[in-house]
Design a protein that fits this description.
The complex is a heterodimer of chains A (418) and B (536). Chain A is an alpha+beta fold and 418 residues long. Chain A folds into 3 domains: 126 residues, no CATH class; 144 residues, Cupredoxins -  blue copper proteins (Immunoglobulin-like, Sandwich); 128 residues, Cytochrome Bc1 Complex, Chain D, domain 2, CATH 1.10.760.10. In chain A, 45% of the residues lie in helices and 15% in strands. In chain A, a hairpin with a 2-residue loop joins strand 11 and strand 12. In chain A, helix 2 packs antiparallel against helix 3. Chain A is elongated and about 95 Å long. Chain B has one domain: Up-down Bundle (Cytochrome C Oxidase, Chain A), CATH 1.20.210. Chain B is an all-alpha fold. Chain B is globular, with a radius of gyration of 23 Å. In chain B, helix 4 packs parallel to helix 14, helix 11 runs antiparallel to helix 12 and helix 12 packs antiparallel against helix 14.
Chain lengths: 418, 536
């Protein structure tokens, strides 16, 4: 009988069984065909630009085809059975419970032999190839040290003696829905990692606090960054361009806000960039002995605060109850005993309230962090001028009116010793 | 073994052939059916708690910068969603089935250790309260809320976490105690209480699935419990098991967690792969296909699941040789799982099928769990896994495996056994609506997540880049529909249990059903098989 005609006539006698058959047919259609096809056409991996990335895309495509076929065979068999072996068509069920005879056993074992071939040959061989390729970090032309912090990345180029930290540059206003969003919302940074193309680059990864993961989809690599270990991986980028990724291991409240942006340039341009970067860092170092006006410090301080500090202490400086203390003095704050003790010892806490402590302690907190609390040390990633600016800003905004103006030299004096 | 002298048994019967009345019936319960029902009620309740948390997650992800939850609260909600669904919803429900059904299926009068059974159950609500209590305390201004590390509780993030983490670790200890007690009880019952003639290879498949599940629980839960004690020690007693700052090893925790965590997947899955063949055989009106093959597959899956854990850690930086071992061993699991699929197909093949709600859910299970299994194939590839790991591809994969498998299986089992337990039929119309809407909504939620993962969206982020916005909105709308659909199920359940609308169920309930449990009236009397049945 014509099943299609049955469905076309529809309505009058659609039993649950027919709805099931129709539904399964629809599901097989959409999931089995449209699903993987759509995935391939519109939602593939980002175009890979490294050998590993291309390997993984090859495996992914191969796998999509294989599981689409397996799914169609499986759902096809199920559909056929639902159609052909329903009570309406077969009043009496068969009674077999296992394969009988050599021929049936042979047939019954084919799916498993096929699966073994798929597992260990079709998928297994390309997998082995890329695992070994990925593990081979030897013969690199350059090494970059990547350090993960809660919640930003820091990049150092030992061969060139340069290094910088790379922070999310999406303004807090966009995150708080108070400004229109940039197209690269949450995937933009102030200082991207710059790498030369066509050179094998070894990435050495370390973490200063918890586990993070370095992931740039176009490179096909994702490497956990584990405190206490020096992990390594490598890239060799074929094509100049900007590649964006983000941290891929839950690392606390800022996990969504520590993107990775890589700018790949030709080796010649890379050398130019190194020269510029050296000059920039020299200029920054010079700021440690410079003197700034209060206006300059406040403007720069606001910028640093909104980039680095606002994620925890909030744009309004009121912090988060129980977790991150307010910057604004005179506000009540309750938190874990170790944090309160640390704040009190440094003179920033009295009778249940945050108070403005001594300048020297303020500088030390920003430089060295507060061990045992989420407050990180900024000595390695901020210049003395930036630290001076942000502390000046913190002590003269949010309703604080200490009038203190901190100059870079004061910070530099405390930088080396405690 | 269980050959009780009928004369002695008779002496005892008049004292407790009816359940005690009031709250003490449940507080002091030792009857396996009462305890089974409590497990089921508790599990279903927590399924809705976990579901509510899922709706919160999807509300936050509806658009790139929703502010339903702060980033802190978001991390807490995803963590508790995972812990509740795994430990407080799915595991109690499958244990409930075990408690209710195993004595009936093997012809035993009760579980072997009834008081242990009571204790095992009552630890659960305590553990569940511990998990969510920190939110209540936070409302009172105490602490920072619950644990916010993700259900994997990776160190040293877990050591940095607020006091909510201590509540969670203690809750896991209680859950471990509870599961271990239940597992010992189930194993002793199966080993000692079988009716005369019920040999090991005559045990119903569901009972066999629980033999393996219970063995797995006893084998791996102690590792997690020891790990939790080490975490507590790191947090409060100055040890450094997992803290690199003191010379400890964060990767050690990953090994401990996944040594438990991977078998846990099969602990969730196996009981429903045990129920499924019973349902398929019933509605195909055909004997189960490949009984022995399924039993051997359960055992093979159980053994293999203990030696493949580090495939959850392919990005942790293990040496290449270790990754290759874990990849190859993981691939091997596809064989016994494929045997199960083959037997399910064999069971319905050339049957005479009808499609009542349990059968619909069973068939849906095969399709959805199939997708979960197939996508698992490529996740086993240690190199390609770098692109999938911790993305929404992974999230979609394990929801197809754990909702498509255990939860679809739980629905199938509940609809299948509800008439037996209550003596009334549920509403078939509502049941079918529940199935179809669940099937559609589930795919609307999770199919886009595969694509999101491929496009590069990591999991566990409250805000995301703009290119992920359209698919996230589709996924969230699907989640609202999926959540609303479960209310149909709740209504159908309540209507059957408390109402009188359902038609009375016969002893056999279904035309094609077989097994000792269907020789008893529906609902079965408070005490059953006081005189053991004799199996041919």
């Amino acid at each position: 009988m014509s099943t299609i005609g049955y469905f076309l006539r529809g309505g009058d006698d659609m039993s649950g069984e027919k709805i099931l058959q129709l539904g399964l047919l629809g599901m097989a259609g959409t999931v089995g065909l449209a699903g993987p096809a759509a995935a391939r056409a519109f939602y593939n991996f980002q175009t890979p630009v490294t050998p590993i990335g291309r390997d993984v895309l090859f495996i992914h495509d191969l796998f999509l085809i294989i599981i689409a076929i397996l799914f169609l065979i499986g759902t096809g068999a199920l559909l056929y059975s639902v159609f052909a072996h329903s009570r309406r068509r077969r009043a009496h069920a068969a009674t077999f419970t296992q394969p009988v005879g050599r021929k049936q056993w042979l047939w019954a074992s084919t799916p498993f032999v096929a699966l073994l071939i798929i597992d260990y040959l079709i998928l297994g061989i390309p997998a082995l190839h890329s695992i070994w390729a990925l593990a081979d970090t030897a013969d690199a032309q350059m090494t970059v040290q990547v350090t993960a912090h809660q919640w930003h990345w820091q990049y150092q180029y030992p061969a060139y003696g340069i290094g910088f930290s790379s922070d999310l540059s999406t303004p807090q206003q966009q995150i708080d829905n108070q400004a229109p969003k940039n197209p690269h919302f949450l995937l933009q940074v102030d200082h991207p990692l710059v790498l030369p193309t066509h050179e094998k680059i070894r990435l050495m990864l370390a973490s200063s606090d918890v586990i993070h993961a370095f992931w740039v989809p176009a490179f096909g690599i994702k490497q956990d960054v584990v405190p206490g270990y020096l992990r390594k991986t490598w890239v060799q980028i074929d094509k100049p361009g900007v590649y964006r990724g983000q941290c891929a291991e839950l690392c606390g409240v800022g996990h969504a806000f520590m993107p990775i942006v890589v700018r790949a340039v030709s080796p010649a341009q890379f050398q130019q960039w190194v020269t510029q970067e050296r000059a920039r860092e020299a200029a920054v170092a010079a700021t440690a002995s410079a003197t700034y006006s209060e206006t300059q410090l406040l403007a720069q301080g606001r910028h640093v605060f909104q980039t680095l500090c606002a994620a925890c202490h909030q744009l309004n400086g009121l912090g988060l109850p129980g977790a991150f203390p307010p910057i604004a003095a005179g506000h009540p704050f309750a938190a874990s005993a170790p944090m309160i003790a640390a704040l009190r010892a440094r003179g920033f806490y009295r009778q249940g309230e945050i108070v403005e402590g001594p300048v020297v302690n303020h500088i030390r907190i920003v430089l060295h962090g507060i061990p045992g609390t989420p407050m990180p040390a900024f000595a390695a990633q901020l210049s003395a001028a930036d630290i001076a600016a942000v502390i000046t800003y913190e002590r003269n905004d949010f309703g604080n009116h200490t009038g203190d103006v901190i100059e870079p030299a004061q910070v530099a004096a405390l930088e080396d010793g405690h | 073994m269980s050959a009780v002298n009928p004369a002695i048994e008779h002496l005892h019967e008049p004292h407790h052939d009816a359940p005690p009345r009031g709250i003490t019936r449940w507080l002091y319960a030792t009857n396996h059916k009462d305890i089974g029902v409590m497990y089921l009620v508790f599990g279903v309740l927590m399924f809705f708690v976990g579901g509510l948390l899922a709706e919160l997650i999807r509300s936050e992800l509806l658009t790139p910068t929703m502010r339903v939850l702060s980033p802190e609260a978001y991390n807490q909600v995803i963590t508790i969603h995972g812990l509740v669904m795994v430990f407080a919803a799915v595991m109690p429900i499958t244990t409930g089935f075990a408690n209710y059904l195993i004595p009936l299926m093997i012809g035993a009068p009760d579980m072997a250790l009834p008081r242990l059974n009571n204790w095992g159950f009552w630890l659960l609500p305590a553990a569940a309260i511990l998990l969510v209590l920190p939110w209540g305390l936070k409302l009172l201004g105490i602490g920072t809320g619950t644990i916010d590390t993700g259900w994997t509780m990776y160190a040293p993030l877990s050591i940095q976490a607020g006091p909510g983490a201590d509540f969670a670790f203690v809750a896991v200890l209680l859950l471990g105690l509870s599961s271990t007690m239940a597992s010992i009880n189930i194993l002793v019952t199966i080993a000692q209480q079988r009716a005369p003639g019920m040999s090991w290879l005559k045990l119903p498949v569901f009972v066999w699935s629980w033999v393996v599940t219970a063995l797995l629980l006893i084998a791996v839960f102690p590792a997690l419990m020891a790990g939790c004690v080490m975490q507590i020690a790191d947090r409060h007693f100055g040890t450094h098991f997992f803290s690199a700052a003191g010379g400890g090893d964060p990767v050690l925790w990953e090994h401990i967690f996944w040594f438990f965590g991977h078998p846990e997947v099969y602990i969730l899955l196996l009981p429903t792969t045990g129920i499924l063949p019973h349902i398929l055989a019933t509605f195909a009106r055909k004997p189960m296909y490949g009984y022995k093959a399924q039993v051997y597959s359960f055992v093979a899956i159980g053994v293999m699941s203990i030696i493949v854990w580090a495939h959850h850690m392919f990005t942790s930086g293990l040496p290449a040789g270790v990754e290759i071992y874990f990849m190859l061993s993981t691939m091997a699991i596809s064989i016994p799982v494929a045997v199960l699929f083959f037997c399910w197909f064999g069971t319905i093949w050339r049957g005479s099928m009808t499609f009542e709600t349990p059968m619909l859910f069973a068939l849906g299970y095969i399709v959805l769990f199939g997708i979960g299994g197939l996508t698992g194939l490529v996740l086993s590839d240690a190199a390609a896994d770098q692109q999938y790991h911790n993305t929404y591809f992974l999230v979609a994969h394990f929801h197809y495996a754990l909702f498509g498998g255990p939860i679809m299986g739980i629905f199938a089992g509940l609809y299948y056994y509800l008439p037996k337990m209550t003596g009334r039929m549920y509403s078939e119309t509502l049941g079918r609506w529940h199935f179809w809407l669940t099937l559609i909504a589930f795919n609307v939620v999770f199919m886009p997540q595969f694509l999101l993962g491929i496009a590069g969206m990591p999991r566990r982020i409250p805000d995301y880049a703009l290119q992920f916005a359209p698919l996230n909105m589709v996924s969230s709308i699907g989640a609202f529909l999926l959540g609303a659909t479960q209310l149909l199920f709740l209504y159908n359940l309540a209507r059957t249990v408390f109402g009188t609308a359902g038609a009375p169920a016969s002893a056999r309930v279904w035309e094609g059903s077989s097994g000792l449990e269907f020789t008893l009236p529906s609902p079965p009397p408070f005490h059953t098989f006081s005189t053991p049945p004799v199996i041919e």
